[in-house]
Amino acid sequence: RVNREDFLSALEEVHPAFGVAEEELQQVIQNGIIHFHPVELLRDGALFVEQVRTSTRTPLVSVLLHGPPGSGKTAMAATIAQASQFPFIKLVSPESMIGMSPTQKIAAINKIFTDSYKSPLSVVVVDNIERLLEWVPIGPNFSNAVLQALLVLLGRRPPKGRRLLIIATTSIKPMLAETQLLEVFDADLRIPPVSSLESLDIVLREVELFPTEEERRRAVMQIEEAGFGKTNNYGTQMEIGIKKLLTYIEMARQEPEFVAERLTSALMGLKM
Ligand code: ATP
Ligand code: MG
């Protein structure tokens, strides 16, 4: 007899036709994307997807998303990947490789690329390259074996008739330049932090932190007075990654009486 469990597990077995890692992707994009950037980064991403889909001359396109910690690189990469609706979408992430030796990592990364070559259209997201390379700023130290493998895999054209989009992310672009990895990318896309009052206002509106527009407007003014959105005497600006900003917002939400104050003082703690 076929019971409900069998039925469900059968569904699960057929679901990933080529290996779309639904769960992994869902996890990194569960909080969604707020459209606060002055330029539409998702549209830029979609152009790379279209290039891979339609151009016969470029069966391999690789894009590097870079920006400061927490600027939203992983979420952006995963969102672009998912929007492609390509039959094969996989995430290579350091989170899924905890405890692996460099050799095991290389085998795992290699397998994902080899699997992608079986699908006519694929996206592989190589998340957080510096972590994959076990790079540490003191030293500097990293796994040369993983680096060599990535240099090969990121540059290798898929077999005839197959097309592949690679989206990689990093917070440390200079490291990629030093290791020659930067050269293998066809394009790069900067994912900037939140630094303008307009962007901040959009985020605050979208997360519905304040019950009225009036209260939100007053909070933004308070934050402006504290210096956010301005350039200081040294030419630098206060900025915050969307990831941290969302955390601050949720912290402020815990104290309904003092939301604006909590948020302002958290932002004041930022380094200029
Ligand atoms: P890290 O440097 O630690 O790797 P990251 O740059 O990869 O961080 P994410 O892990 O992608 O940042 O975190 C960004 C968070 O902000 C996610 O929870 C995402 O859902 C949310 N978010 C909201 N709006 C945006 C946006 N426009 N772009 C990217 N992420 C956004
Ligand atoms: Mg990330």
Q: What does this molecule look like?
A:
With about 270 residues, the protein is α/β, with parallel strands linked by helices. The chain has helices at about 5-15, 20-30, 40-55, 75-85, 100-115, 130, 145-155, 175-180, 195-205, 215-225, 240-255, 260-270; strands at about 60-65, 90, 120-125, 165-170, 185-190. The protein is built from twelve helices and five strands. It has a five-stranded parallel sheet, sandwiched between helices. The chain is about 45% helix and about 10% strand. The radius of gyration is 21 Å and the shape is globular. Helix 3 (about 40-55) packs across helix 4 (about 75-85), helix 9 runs antiparallel to helix 10 (about 215-225) and helix 11 runs antiparallel to helix 12 (about 260-270). The longest helix is centred in the middle third of the chain and has 15 residues, at about 100-115. Adenosine-5'-triphosphate binds near residues 69, 71, 74, 243 and 246.
Largest sheet: 5 strands, parallel
Secondary-structure element series: HHHEHEHEHHEHEHHHH
Mean pLDDT: 91
Give the distinct bound molecules.
adenosine-5'-triphosphate, magnesium ion
Q: Helical amount among residues, as a percent range?
A: 40-55%
Question: Given the structure, what is the number of helices?
Answer: 12
Strand order in space, largest sheet:
2-3-4-1-5
Beta strand count? 5
What is the CA-atom radius of gyration, in angstroms? 21 Å
Task: Look at the helices and sheets and give the structural class.
Answer: alpha/beta
Euclidean distance between termini CA atoms: 66 Å
The percentage of residues in β strands lies in 5-15%
Low-confidence segments, ≥5 residues, pLDDT <50? 13-18
What sort of overall outline do the alpha carbons produce when their principal axes are compared? globular
